[in-house]
Write a structure and sequence with these properties.
This protein is an alpha/beta fold. It folds into two domains: 2-19 and 261-382, Aspartate Aminotransferase, domain 1 (Alpha-Beta Complex), CATH 3.90.1150.10; 22-260, Aspartate Aminotransferase, domain 2 (3-Layer(aba) Sandwich), CATH 3.40.640. The protein is built from 13 helices and twelve strands. α1 packs antiparallel against α8 (245-260), α2 (44-64) runs parallel beside α8 and α10 (309-318) packs across α13 (364-382). The chain is globular, with a radius of gyration of 21 Å.
């Protein structure tokens, strides 16, 4: 492997997690040291922290295009998703038990939906096309009088395909059906204007340069939820547990930083991704799994014919390249991506998948250092 060794590590898995932004860390430090009070406490130390918590809610709500009272802090995207799906379905089971879920949702949605199916709800999958896109007429044709909720992610975490959320939101609003949007991959990366008609929006801080272990749920007014955690009365009695104030502060600053850089960074990442696609296309037997014009600016997903993606990741890792074959939450699994299979890819081809995802720390040099290593790895595996 000496011919494939990289001089320094190259990180190309920002869809799994991102480096903590320096300004987020700096903002967190006072709340890890001197401002350590419990925000529910009535004395001065607690009131100081409560004031910062309220300010973070206001600042994030302005970016997420919601009212502060519609924003609930959680431990991450997974909890936000479970709170939305389980909390809403259980609160409205007397009005219907039919749920529509896209076939390429993150497992946090798919497994939460399966758990609801075990409770007696009917879960129906929405199919996608060859590039992982949900078609509005497919959803419209499946809506019923007893449909409670539709779950379609803003953009897929494996292939990056962006969904027609504005149209889906209007459809669901017209039929008085709640729409849940998993925006974990898009908050801080795309404009969220298309989500204005969504009843629920889930985000996670570590996908846009914030700390791990914190996220948020937007739940529009009038959408009653039942809690899934029980204890104190935090988060307006919907999410029990002392708020993780240092991480909420870090999440707020990271989201503000990402939002401020959005236009320029989206353009920069699209240029890097196009350069990456151009170079990848020179490797024989490369199949692209998304269309650039319908895709997030920072995710490139391909399959290489006649190789094992798992073996490819092993060789890349030995050469100092961090990449993925699919969702990081499925790491260690030998299953072929459910996303690629739902798109109609043959299992043998889907087994050779590689996801390369860029971020605010990615450079042209990263791509230049990746390509000779990647090409050598593919050639070695085919031999």
């Amino acid at each position: 492997m000496t011919e494939m060794q990289a001089q320094e590590s190259v990180y190309l898995d920002h869809a799994a997690t991102t480096p903590l932004r320096p300004q987020a860390l700096e903002a967190m430090l006072p709340y890890l040291k001197e401002h350590y009070g419990n925000p529910s406490a009535v004395y001065a130390l607690g009131r100081t922290v409560r004031a910062q918590l309220d300010a973070c809610r206001d600042r994030m709500a302005a970016i997420l295009r919601c009212q502060p009272g519609e924003l609930y802090f959680t431990s991450g995207g997974t909890e936000a998703i479970n709170l939305a799906l389980h909390g809403y379905a259980r609160a409205h089971r007397d009005q219907g038990r039919h749920l529509l879920v896209s076939a390429i949702e993150h497992h946090a949605v798919l497994h939460a939906a399966k758990a609801l199916a075990d409770e007696g709800f009917e879960v129906e999958e929405i199919p996608v096309d060859r590039y992982g896109r949900v078609h509005v007429d497919e959803v419209a044709g499946r809506l019923r009088k007893d449909t409670l909720l539709v779950a379609v992610m803003h953009a897929n975490n494996e292939i990056g395909t962006i969904q027609p959320i504005a149209e889906l939101g209007k459809l669901c609003q017209d039929h008085r059906v709640a729409l849940h949007v998993d925006a974990v991959q898009t908050a801080g990366h795309l404009s969220l204007m298309d989500l204005d008609h969504a009843a629920f929006i889930s985000i996670s801080a570590h996908k846009f340069g914030g700390p791990k272990g914190v996220g948020a749920l937007v739940a529009r007014r009038g959408r009653r939820l039942l809690p899934i955690l029980y204890g104190g009365g935090q988060e307006r009695e919907l999410r029990a547990g002392t708020e993780n104030v240092p991480c909420i502060v870090g999440m707020t600053v990271a989201l503000e930083s990402a939002h401020a850089e959005l236009a320029g960074e989206e353009s920069r990442l699209r240029r890097l991704a196009q350069d990456l696609r151009n170079r990848l296309s020179r490797i024989p037997g490369t199949v692209f799994n998304s269309r650039p014009e319908l895709c997030l600016p920072h995710i490139v997903n391909v399959c290489f014919e006649e190789i094992s993606g798992e073996s490819l990741l092993y060789l890349l890792d030995r050469a100092g390249i961090a990449a993925a074959s699919g969702s990081a939450c499925s790491a260690g699994s030998t299953l072929v991506s459910h996303v690629l299979l739902a798109m109609g890819l043959p299992r043998t081809l889907a087994a050779g998948a590689l996801r390369l995802s860029l971020g605010y720390s990615s450079t042209e040099e990263d791509i230049a250092r990746l390509m000779p290593v990647l090409q050598a790895c593919v050639e070695r595996l085919r031999r």
